[in-house]
Amino acid sequence: MGEITFIRHGQASYGAANYDKLSPLGHQQAEWLGHHLKVSGHRFDRIVCGTLRRHRETLAGIQQSLNHETVAEDARLNEMSFFALERAFEAYTGELLPLGQAAAARNFSRVMAAWEADEIPDVDEQYGDFRSRILAAVADHSREGEHLLVVSSGGPVGVTIREVLGLDLAAMTNVILRTYNASYSRFAILDGQRHLVQFNGVAHLETADRRHALTYL
After folding, report:
1. What is the pTM of this model?
2. Most exposed residue of 27, 49, 159, 210, measured as fewest CB within 10 angstroms of its CB?
3. Roughly what angle, to the nearest 10 degrees, separates helices 154-165 and 169-177?
4. According to CATH, what is the number of the domain 2-80+134-213?
5. Which residue from 155, 212, 189, 188 is spatially nearest to 8, judged by alpha carbons?
6. What residues pair up with 48 in beta bridges, in sequence order?
């Protein structure tokens, strides 16, 4: 049996000029996760991460404890360009989406629905292409009999879970919105098929002095 541990990056810099870097809390989340994986006795045959800065910084924090030698990068594991999708959605509809964290979940659901339906023109990547590259990357790096660690983003986690469980778009969107920063989901590989065995693991953040680190944004 093979296994995939799929990690969402630590907290990024939402609202800052450059979202694509970890916040101070995001760095701490990654370090706590790496220590948890080590003391829990997890052993990985290979590690692969996306090429975004927040992926690399999350992996660097994990590696402070794991110090794994076999690490690769794959741009196919990068997140969707959601802020660009929002701008394209606004340009197409003539509507300005509301700002702020309170509106973020509703905005995300609306844009994702339009994206999947190919209703947003002038975007660099359609949903079907995003889905295909994520699933291809996961398939290419997975091996029966090996334990793979993937460091990526909430979108790729959601796409992979959707494929395994046969979810509709609304359910996948909810999975993405509810995936904690620096959380881990696990898949077993049996007879060439992936099976979800754990979603949104945050044991490393659930002590009383760390519950402030349970973040989505």
Report:
1. 0.95
2. 210
3. 140
4. 3.40.50.1240
5. 155
6. 72, 150
